[in-house]
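User: Hey, my collaborator sent me this sequence without any context and asked if I could get a structure. I don't really work with proteins. Can you help?
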Amino acid sequence: MSLRDKIQAIDDTQKEVVNIKVWDADVEVRSLTGMARASLMTKSMDKDGKVIQEQFHQGLVVNTCFDPETGDQLFTLDDTWLMEKNASAIEKLVAAAMRVSGLAVGDVEDAEKN
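Assistant: No problem. I've predicted the 3D structure and written it out in structure-token form, which is a compact way to encode the shape of the chain:
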């Protein structure tokens, strides 16, 4: 098997189960794909290239949060109520999503500069 085939075949999704006490629930957070990350960054920027944090956080949570029992995606972008939930719960999911996706706070700031 060639290296290219090996890379293509491997499941490189990183996963972390996060307990959200205020929801009395466990959430499986999965890493973003390269395409999902690029799309999220594009959709989360205003016309001046500044990251709109609310859109970035919502998009990150929507794209990375799954039911650990069924594997189903938990949220959609139509779930406008999501960002009205407890801020500590959202922040915990955002932090986990950034961690498993290999994103650092500086990555978002760097995207604004480019």
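In plain terms: The beta strands are 15-20, 25-30, 65-66. You can pass these tokens on to your collaborator as they are.
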